[in-house]
Amino acid sequence: MRAHALRVAVTRDEGLDGPLTEALRRRGFEPVSCTVVNDAPPPEPEPLARAARNLETYQWLVVASQRAVAALLEARGGKPLPASLRTAAVGAKTAARLAAGGADSPLTAPGAGAAALIEALRGADRWPGRRVLIPRALEGGRELGQSLRHWGACVDEVVAYRTLERPPDEIIGAWDAARPDAVVVASPSAARALVRAVGADALRRLERVAAIGSTTAMQLMALGVPAVVPARSDFEAVADLLTGPPAEAPPEAHR
């Protein structure tokens, strides 16, 4: 029997009371901080500010992260989302953040990741001519916008924030101090920064490597690190995943 609680490295930029940390602690894990990327404002803030001012001209708002929602609402000066605006989110937590900002019943997908949301969006509207706003990370994926444009929607993608990698020596120091048994990787940029700093072997030696979302899992696989991914892109689901026995990475993470 294990002599200590499973130490799980949290690579997100969140405090000791952050949502992932709290979800892990509630399940008996010992979360340990190992931040590898930090959020920062977009390099050019005006496009986001302009989109926020003109949000009433859009029919849809589609978001892939809570940080994107927070940045958009901040750019609106705390003004709630328009009542007529339809919304969609990758993950229940992001949907909840939209609802807190004034959205009415955001659309989510039963599965994790952007691909599942694309399928949910396909039949959600008649897309030709629909105006859609997608605030995203500078390094964020383009699948949502590409699919909506393919269906005839008029899509504006604006950079809401960017992620900055911590210097490798700082990541190595945090990793050594954490002494993790497992790790949760929350984004492709975090996967790249972590593997670049500590190496794939360090992650492969862990009991479990969990990715929030299939895109992050595929990035880890491309870097030589098998990972498991929860059915939903949220912190509670990934914490639940770690409570079970180690599992093989799902098929989509191997493509």
The spatial strand order of the largest sheet comes to: 3-7-6-4-5
Question: What does the average pLDDT come to?
Answer: 88
Could you estimate the helical fraction of the residues in percent? 25-40%
Order of SSEs, N→C? EHEEHEHEHHEHEHEHHEHH
The major pleated sheet works out as: 5 strands, mixed
Radius of gyration: 18 Å
State which percent range the strand residues make up.
Answer: 15-25%
N- and C-termini, Cα separation: 36 Å
Secondary structure category: alpha/beta
Tally of alpha and pi helices: 11
By DSSP, the count of extended strands is 9
Low-confidence stretches: 247-255
What would the principal axes of the Cα set say about the shape? globular
Provide a descriptive summary of the structure in words.
- Helix content is 38%, strand content 18%.
- It is built from eleven helices and nine strands.
- The strands form two sheets. The protein has a five-stranded mixed beta sheet with strand order 3-7-6-4-5.
- The longest helix has 11 residues, at 168-178.
- 46% of the residues are buried.
